[in-house]
Write a structure and sequence with these properties.
88 residues; 62% helix
Amino acid sequence: MASPLETRIWDPAEHHETEADTVAYINAAFEEGDPPLIAAALGDVARAEGIAQIARDAGLGRESHYKALSPDGNPEFATIMRVIGAFG
């Protein structure tokens, strides 16, 4: 009898090992042209880089950052630009 297969939710933030990975991920999101997808991708990258530091560098509170860049968030363009700037 086979053992049950264990699965877990795939987290894209765990797969940004190089700067090239991160750039390719963000570029792919922009190529789709879907604003919620772009915001979510930026959130994934921020989590990979360290959300607390990115939020500080962007001048946002950590909770505001999570909310704005969640798949259900609706961030202002200025917020998106501040987050991108915080990535360096």
